């Protein structure tokens, strides 16, 4: 379905980004990965997922908090792959602390990586998408783009921001073949959430399994984690022709979290 298209997925060496990259690769899209840590493992996994479709897989290690590196990454994608047809703004970090103790440097990093990076990738990718008459921008927001939790002020501010940004750009592109949407996952058991599980287990003196159950019971009525595979398949749908008129939406995949 996506053969001949190129997808850039930021923060895709792990977790949700990698899950989305794998699903898009299975549909035949060339994939450019980004993120920290080992890139070779994720690159081989994605190449294997798209092997039957003959996809190409690339990687750029831009730090998403640095505009100059983002510009270099976007130029690299255009030069190596011809265009960025699908942009998945996924890179994100978390820090949990009451606002009065929130480290200023963590606030700045969360706003830069979880929000401002999407402004830079979008402004750089959109003109070519519009010129080619087709494009998909998927912003991986969160339930925290719709509702709040205590001690996550920077994350909640950034995620509400990216939902607003999604709507504004969707309107600007509304008469073009470029759609812009946000996806709002509830708890997904990735390294980002495992840190919060570990902190809870340590603070309450409980097992890792009990900490996971508590985390889910507090917010996610299904009592099941959302998976990177489910988010990957939702991304495939939003890239399909059937979703051509889905514009400016914040689509939850949260086990009922925001239905409460
Ligand atoms: P993760 O920690 O598994 O992956 C984060 C990815 O971002 C990694 O590849 C990491 O290397 C990359 N990254 C971090 N800082 C970066 C930077 N400065 N530059 C480039 N890459 C950077 O986390 P995840 O849970 O997969 O989160 C992915 C996205 O999904 C984030 O935006 C997060 O806010 C969002 N999200 C996660 C959950 C959840 O429950 N895990 C829920 C809702 C939304």
UniProtKB/TrEMBL annotation:
Gene3D superfamilies: NAD(P)-binding Rossmann-like Domain. CDD domains: HBDH_SDR_c. InterPro entries: 3-OHbutyrate_DH, NAD(P)-bd_dom_sf, Sc_DH/Rdtase_CS, SDR, SDR_fam. Belongs to the short-chain dehydrogenases/reductases (SDR) family. This is 3-hydroxybutyrate dehydrogenase. It comes from Roseateles violae.
């Amino acid at each position: 379905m996506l053969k001949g298209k190129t997808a850039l997925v930021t923060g895709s060496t792990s977790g949700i980004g990698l899950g989305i990259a794998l699903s898009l690769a299975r549909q035949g899209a060339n994939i450019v990965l980004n993120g920290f840590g080992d890139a070779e493992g994720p690159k081989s996994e994605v190449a294997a997922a798209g092997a039957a479709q003959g996809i190409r897989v690339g990687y750029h290690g831009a730090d998403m908090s640095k505009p100059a590196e983002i510009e270099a990454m976007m130029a690299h994608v255009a030069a190596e792959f011809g265009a960025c047809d699908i942009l998945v703004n996924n890179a994100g970090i978390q820090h949990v602390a009451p606002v009065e103790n929130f480290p200023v440097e963590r606030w700045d990093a969360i706003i830069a990586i979880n929000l401002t990076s999407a402004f830079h990738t979008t402004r750089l990718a959109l003109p070519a998408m519009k010129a080619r008459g087709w494009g998909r921008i998927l912003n991986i927001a969160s339930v925290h783009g719709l509702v709040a939790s205590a001690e996550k002020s920077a994350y909640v501010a950034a995620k509400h921001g990216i939902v607003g940004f999604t709507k504004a750009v969707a309107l600007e592109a509304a008469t073009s073949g470029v759609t812009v949407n946000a996806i709002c996952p509830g708890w997904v058991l990735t390294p980002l959430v495992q840190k919060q599980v570990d902190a809870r287990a340590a603070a309450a003196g409980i097992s890792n399994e009990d900490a996971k159950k508590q985390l889910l019971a507090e917010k996610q009525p299904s009592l099941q984690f959302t998976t990177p595979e489910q988010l990957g398949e939702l991304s495939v749908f939003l890239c399909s022709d059937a979703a051509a008129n889905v514009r400016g939406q914040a689509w939850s995949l949260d086990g009922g979290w925001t239905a409460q």
